[in-house]
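Why should sequence recovery work at all? Because a backbone constrains its sequence more than one might expect. Tight turns favour small or flexible residues, buried strands favour hydrophobic ones, and helices have their own preferences. The token representation captures these environments compactly. In the example below, the structure is given first.
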């Protein structure tokens, strides 16, 4: 007899809908197996033939952390292209490389944690490089394009499964695991949620990752918004993956829960489906979930909901149907695309005619980034490399290009009269850090195969760079940076500064007649010991800094001999502004200001090129030309040279406002873009360069704007003509603003844009069809979106400030109505204006309350409150202790309510008499550490 083949289980049947297959698989998994799936590293279930699975593969601008891969421009650079079609092609290339790399290394995951859609609200945010724009519309357009590329074009199966980062209102690294972003309802709906929503609704998003911070006093990992908003935007099962270590933070740092069982249960019930904690070790998360089940905090049905969402992603990736793609890796097409993206990301900030450069120009290329191709924390390892210097050599010829890096060349003399010395190293491995790939590159250790530094009578001359705030790097003549490994010894061992905790930075601290050389990674000073130079608290060495040559002297020599000077300045993405570290100023570091000043003094024909992850405050009026590009990836130098030579006309546009002064910036933790007048939407000052700014080697004229409304759609059209002499791209931008708003509305708001390539003399006719919902705002008086009737200015131009055409459309909407306070009262967070308050959590699961900030006094204003025929009593729902004073229209206090001491979540109702009728503005003054949730009126 022949044994019968066992029937194919339904979850293996590709003809069944995914939902039925998931139901079948869930029914076959034991509770313990399902619990094990909740950790980032889900184990295999061999009895069912299910492979292991991990969430999370970084792929922000190329496959990261897993060794060599195509490196595209940083995300903020992709945002600067204003080109969704290009970014979709980049996403497509990245997803193909993910598949190709996974075919040879199963550690490469298909659930990619990209893109980052946090809005670039504040330019000092350390992770500015990871976002696309300060504007939600542009951010969602670029993010949608990238996710569509990552998803692939198969009608059923996804090439990769993108997860959006970081939910929600996350723009500070300072105290990022414990700080709370106070986000009023209008900012929540009109700004922070919007970029996520429009990207999710486009249909190529597999999930989101909550951020480390709290919003309105509640950690994002237990946010009710996951359920109330995110999961209502799509019929797809969205996988919510925690950020690394964030589940433990709920107890260990935020102290929001007393036990990890409570915290884990709360996160899972809020919507977290995959817990990224304790690296590859799942035991603690599994034990916490099992403990929560035993305590009745979770049910098996709760576990099933989370596992279902994970399985949904795995089915879409084709795992259970044997679907695979061979992918593509480092193809000629990918290399060309990396160059195209780098070219399109370059922004011409200023040009008085000096650019483009003639072919026979003698060029001095100077500056700390002139011969660098910097990577960031979320980069892959370079397969190809092009620095500005290399690009200029290739384009103009090495004989026409001079180079001066501008480092200070120094010796470090010890108290005994000897000098720090780098001993020769023989037969060492020159592999670049990270080339082998690592699931967690934070765990990569420094090299110990090289000899530690010693001292001798002559010493080694080091290249010293001050990156700002007295943070220094020291580089040996062979190009390696001084670094400290786990054994504490100082070696010339790093190809570049890097790592989760950078081990290549130092600070010279005045001490006696010399300086301590403090290693910033360990916090210890450098000490000279018998076995070599090391870092240690005991016996710190006192050094004398001997300057052999100042960088500005070398720069001045090179500049004086050239026709044009190119100063390449900017940042190292691992120093002064990165994940875990915000910047403190917009200013260019003093070392680089010295170099720029020296170049300009020696040769007024000086072009500043900023290569940076964020904006700077510079004085462009003294320069004939200036450009900006984000770190442009593997083809950055070639791209820059082609733009400077005029082979490509620059058409990048700034994705965020460049402010002129630090004084123009709000506090880093002020998330109220409306009240704080932040971003181009509300900023009332004069920017250094406005949102959307970017010049061209061509000129363009705009004409024939027309606008009309049909049904629920506004139709807008205009023409753009290239009136210049070269083929070039133009980024036509469409803005609108309410002409006579009843509340504070944006000065102008981007509704659409188009990047078009035009030959000289040609014209493009552009049309936009906008749903009238694009003109709505969140009406806090009624808790809903509202289209305000009246005239709206339609603004067309080349930037948010360079408006070329104007017209007006009159929209029919819903007129403003006073707040029906006798029926609904006032939710405290639904204020129109506030001062001295912040929004906090009403309970640990849902709702908002308002509390005074640190000085203990705040005010809330609610406009146009309708008391009808009259009220005689006011009541408040409040926790904590303090006083609430009520007045109308800014007049005298009409009612005072005292609240007795209570816990922060122990709400009581206090009431007192009041006489009011008709429509008035309600002013509430809060005093003391109370939490106001609601105000009611009756009588």
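From this structural description, the recovered sequence reads:
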């Amino acid at each position: 007899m022949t044994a019968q083949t066992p029937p194919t289980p339904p979850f293996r049947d590709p003809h069944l809908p995914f939902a039925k297959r998931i139901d079948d698989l869930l029914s076959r998994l034991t509770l313990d197996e399902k619990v094990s799936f909740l950790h980032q590293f889900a184990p295999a279930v061999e009895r069912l033939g299910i492979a292991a699975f991990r969430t999370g593969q970084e792929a922000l601008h190329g496959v990261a952390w897993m060794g060599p891969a195509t490196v595209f421009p940083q995300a903020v650079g992709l945002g600067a292209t204003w080109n969704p079609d290009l970014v979709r092609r980049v996403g497509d290339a990245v997803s193909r490389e993910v598949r190709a790399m996974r075919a040879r290394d199963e550690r490469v995951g298909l659930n990619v944690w990209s893109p980052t859609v946090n809005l670039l609200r504040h330019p000092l945010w350390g992770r500015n490089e990871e976002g696309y724009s300060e504007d939600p519309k542009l951010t969602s357009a670029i993010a949608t394009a990238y996710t569509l590329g990552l998803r692939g074009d198969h009608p059923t199966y996804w090439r990769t499964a993108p997860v959006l980062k970081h939910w929600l209102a996350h723009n500070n690294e300072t105290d990022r695991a414990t700080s709370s972003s106070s986000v009023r309802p209008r900012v929540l709906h009109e700004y922070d949620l919007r970029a996520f929503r429009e990207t999710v609704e486009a249909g190529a998003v597999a999930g989101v990752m909550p951020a480390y911070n709290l919003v309105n006093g509640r950690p994002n990992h237990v946010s009710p918004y996951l359920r109330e908003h995110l999961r209502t935007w799509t019929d797809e099962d969205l996988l919510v993956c925690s950020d690394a270590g964030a589940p433990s933070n709920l107890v260990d740092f935020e102290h929001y829960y007393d036990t990890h069982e409570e915290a884990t249960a709360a996160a899972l019930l809020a919507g977290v489906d995959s817990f990224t904690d304790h690296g590859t070790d799942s035991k603690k998360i599994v034990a916490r979930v099992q403990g929560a089940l035993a305590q009745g905090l979770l049910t098996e049905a709760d576990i099933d909901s989370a596992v279902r969402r994970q399985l949904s992603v795995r089915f879409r990736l084709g795992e259970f149907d044997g679907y695979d793609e061979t992918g593509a890796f480092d193809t000629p097409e990918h290399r060309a695309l990396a160059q195209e993206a780098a070219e399109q990301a370059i922004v011409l900030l200023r040009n008085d005619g000096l650019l483009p450069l003639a072919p026979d120009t003698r060029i001095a290329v100077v500056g700390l980034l002139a011969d660098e191709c910097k990577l960031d924390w979320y980069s892959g390892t370079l397969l190809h490399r092009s620095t500005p210097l290399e690009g200029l050599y290739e384009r103009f010829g090495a004989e026409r290009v001079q180079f001066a890096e501008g480092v200070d060349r120094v010796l470090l003399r010890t108290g005994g009269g000897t000098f720090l010395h780098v001993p020769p190293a023989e037969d060492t491995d020159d592999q670049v850090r990270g080339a082998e790939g690592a699931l967690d590159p934070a765990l990569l250790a420094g090299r110990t195969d090289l000899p530690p530094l010693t001292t001798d009578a002559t010493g080694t001359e080091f290249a010293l760079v001050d990156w700002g705030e007295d943070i220094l790097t020291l580089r040996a003549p062979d190009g390696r940076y001084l670094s400290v490994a786990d054994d504490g010894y100082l070696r010339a061992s790093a190809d570049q500064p890097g790592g989760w905790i950078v081990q290549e930075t130092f600070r010279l601290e005045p001490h006696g007649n010399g300086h301590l050389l403090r290693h910033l990674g360990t916090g210890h000073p450098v000490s000279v010991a018998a076995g070599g130079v090391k870092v240690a608290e005991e016996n710190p060495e006192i050094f004398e800094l001997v300057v052999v040559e100042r960088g500005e002297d070398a720069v001045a020599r090179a500049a004086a001999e050239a026709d044009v000077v190119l100063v390449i300045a900017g940042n190292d993405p691992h120093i002064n502004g990165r994940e875990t570290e915000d910047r403190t100023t917009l200013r260019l570091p003093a070392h680089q200001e010295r170099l720029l000043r020296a170049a300009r003094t020696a040769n007024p024909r000086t072009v500043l090129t900023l290569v940076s992850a964020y904006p700077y405050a510079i004085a462009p009026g003294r320069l004939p030309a200036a450009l900006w590009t984000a770190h442009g990836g593997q083809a950055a130098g070639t791209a820059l040279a082609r733009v400077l030579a005029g082979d490509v006309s620059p058409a990048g546009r700034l994705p965020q406002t460049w402010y002129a002064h630090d004084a123009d910036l709000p506090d880093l933790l002020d998330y109220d873009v409306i009240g704080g007048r932040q971003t181009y939407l509300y900023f009332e000052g004069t920017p250094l360069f406005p949102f959307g700014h970017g010049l061209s080697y061509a000129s363009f004229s705009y004409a024939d704007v027309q606008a009309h409304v049909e049904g629920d759609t506004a139709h807008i059209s205009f023409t753009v003509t290239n009136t210049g002499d070269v083929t070039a791209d133009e980024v036509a931008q469409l803005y609108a603003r309410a002409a006579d708003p009843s509340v504070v509305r944006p000065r102008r708001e981007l509704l659409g844009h188009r990047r078009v390539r035009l030959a000289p003399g040609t014209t493009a006719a552009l049309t936009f069809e906008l749903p009238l919902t694009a003109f709505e705002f969140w009406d806090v008086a009624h808790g809903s979106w509202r289209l305000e009737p009246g005239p709206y200015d339609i603004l067309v131009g080349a930037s948010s400030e360079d408006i070329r055409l104007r017209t007006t459309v009159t929209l029919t909407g819903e007129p403003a109505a006073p707040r029906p306070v006798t029926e609904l009262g006032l939710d405290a967070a639904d204020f129109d204006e506030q001062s001295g308050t912040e929004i906090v959590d009403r309970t640990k699961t849902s709702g908002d309350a308002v509390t005074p900030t640190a000085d203990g006094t705040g005010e809330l204003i609610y406009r146009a409150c309708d008391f009808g025929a009259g009220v005689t009593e006011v009541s408040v729902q409040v926790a904590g202790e303090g006083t609430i004073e009520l007045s109308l229209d800014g007049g005298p206090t009409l009612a005072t309510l005292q609240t007795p001491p209570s816990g922060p979540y122990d709400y009581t109702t206090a009431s007192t008499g009041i006489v009011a009728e008709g429509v008035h503005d309600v002013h509430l003054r809060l005093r003391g550490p109370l939490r106001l949730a609601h105000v009611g009126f009756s009588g």
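A few observations help interpret the result. The radius of gyration is 30 Å.
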